[in-house]
Every structure is written in C-alpha cells, then in structure tokens.
C-alpha cells in the first residue's frame, strides 16, 4: 500500500479507535447526570478537575511526547530509536516521581489558589496521582502513532476506555464515592495500563540513557510548553472561570455541552494522529509530490469535518433529551453548535501547524498561542460574570479563530500547501443555511428527528450537486481504506 493509502486507512482506524471510546463514554452521561449518584455540584467538581488535570499533564510531559514525534524518524537506525525512547522514559519516571511527591506534600496552597470550592484532600491529591500514572500511558500511545501501528493504538484506546468506565461505575455506583470515585476510576485504569504498556513496549527499550538526546529533546519540547499551556487556556480555562463566577452547577451543564460538541474534536484529533507521521514521512520519502498529496487530503478533510459538525449541531437537543437524566441539563443543547464550530476551527489549525513543526519554528507557536490565551482570558473576565456559559463558548471560539488564522498565515510561508478556500466557504454557507432551517421545533421529538434527518440528507445531496463531493472520489478513498 502506498503512503497515501496507508494514511487514509490509518485515519479510519484512529477515528474508530478514538470515536468508539467517546461513544462508550456517552453511556456515562446517564450516570453523571443522575442525581442519585452525582449531584450537579459533584459533577461540577469532576468537570472542574479534569481540565486542570490536562494542564498538569503538560507540565509532567515537558513536551517530550512532541519530541518523540519529531525525532523518531530523524534516524533510521533502530538501536538509536531505542536509545531515544529509553532516555525519555527514564527521565520522565524520575522527574514525575519527584514532582508528584512534592505536590502531594506541599501542594495545599496551590490547590486553594486553583480551586474555589473543591477541597485539597482528597481531590488535589488524587489528581496528582492520576497525572503521574497517565504520563506512562501517553508516551506509549505516541510511540504507536509514530510506528504507524494504528490498529494497536485503537485497540488499546478502546480497552482503556472500557476499563475506565468499569472502574468509574464501580467507585461511583457501587461504592457511592461520588466525585472522588471518578478520579479513583481514572487512577486505577492508568495504573493498570501503565504496567501493560511497559510490557508491550519493552522490546522498544534499550535501557540506555543519553544526555545529548535528552538535551536535544528538552530543547525541542520545552518551548512547546507555553504553546500547550496557552492551548489549555483557550480550550479549558472557560470551565475555571465558570467555577469562579457561576458555580459548579453551571460548570456541569457547560461540560455536558462540551462533551457532545467536542466529539468532533476527538475525530479531528484522531485524523491528526495519522496525519502527523504521514506528513513527516511523505516529505522525507516523496518531497516532490508531497504538496499535491497534502492539497488533495485537505480538500476532503474539510468536507468531512464540516458535515460532521453540522450533524452535531442539528441533533444536539435530541441527544441530550435521550441521555441526560435531569431536566437541569437540557439547556446545554444551545451551546453545542458553538462548540462544534470550535472543533472545526481546531481541525483547520491541525492541518496548518505541521508545516511549522516541520520547519522547527516552534517558538512562533508559543507567541501565537500566548496572544490567543490573553484574548481568551480578557474576554472571559469581561463576559463570563454576566453571560456565563454562553460567553465561555464564544470566547473560546474567538481565541481559536485568531490562533488558527495566524498559524495558517505563517504555515503557508514556512511550507506552502494550497487550500481550496472557494469550496470550503461554499460548504460553510450551505452548513449555516441547513442549521438555521433545522431549528424549527415541532414539539415532538420523533417528528423533530425525522425532519432533521431529511435536512441533513438534503445537505449531503447539495454537496454532490455542486461537486463538492463526488462518488468517484469516495470510491477511490473506500478502495484505499480497504486495500490490503
């Protein structure tokens, strides 16, 4: 199979591997929104801690997962690759162990600063333990991606989700541990899989440590930390501001909307998992034709994310009516379309940013992300106290728009790839029209669903009518995916 066919097939596998866990986790909505297991405030605790966990994970990883992405294909010598992986693994174990012990022993003041209504004991301590074990599940998954082991990645991702759901149900439903039960579920899942991954990746380790490799990796990875922190501010600080100004219940409602709307973000993230190694490998192996290959992929990638974003926006209300167990959460459907647009914009960012990574201009990313983060924080401070979760979604969108546009402009200067903007804008206009028409409410969920299905099918037909999609191209991609 050629590299393009392998990318398409790996994208499909990563999508299934990421989307199935996401759909499995939707089952947990019925538990998280059931007041017999978690009150709205307890769900708010869970939803406030998870974004903070992600920023701590960034500080734990030090951008070394990004360094593994960048340097894995820099040398074709398998033994040198093993030294790279071993060096990162040994350093991360020592560093994260010391960091975790320090935060558990001396982190009360930091906890009080971050969380307004969430106790240090047990929640902050549990969060730190979770961060420690999760570090050793992230790096192996990064390795699977770089080795283009999409099936292995997908299978382990699904198994992790199933185990996590099982542990969470056990601690929340049977042991009645509430919000702490959710964190315990994550800890035990990450602990088990950290051991599993150690066994699975054992052959990729040489247990040799190279200080020059570590220095080069940190030199590449550390500049990514401000970029990642800025990305966190843009993507997740909205829940922190809601916690501070509107309380845990509104965090819970907003997070439900985010959980549904960001399904698309998981999809674009899954495609990016295949695209990153494909991008670097294609430039290395077929530099003369690389731009043409990327151009074709970007055209159909755009159609995919816009059509799926429209589907999420249209059917959000019905999904929440079906899965949520409390009427307090129904209003979340109004936020989902904005979150879907955020995911679409984020998807375009993914397709641009690899050109910057290729040219090693990572310092620029830190600058752009910092400016985007400042925009996000300022708008949140001004708007969230008055407009709550609606403002939180809006400010996230504005920040992502700035980041994506700036990244696109610089990426085109670093490594030019043609984007078919006329087709993209036409598709956006059709999506907007379809969404506006879909907001008509007939007062009956079954009639509403039928009506929206018809609208969505008409939208797909319009894509073919205006040749934004073609049957021949779909058959081509189908054959690429199924080809052995």
TrEMBL record:
Cell location: Cell membrane
GO cellular component: plasma membrane
TM helices/strands, residue ranges: 12-32, 44-62, 83-106, 126-144, 151-173, 185-205, 217-236, 256-276, 297-316, 328-351, 363-383, 389-411, 423-447, 453-476
Topology with respect to the bilayer: Multi-pass membrane protein
Domain of life of the organism encoding this protein: Bacteria
Transmembrane helix is among the record's keywords: yes
Keyword terms of this UniProt record: Cell membrane, Membrane, Transmembrane, Transmembrane helix
UniProt protein name: Uncharacterized protein
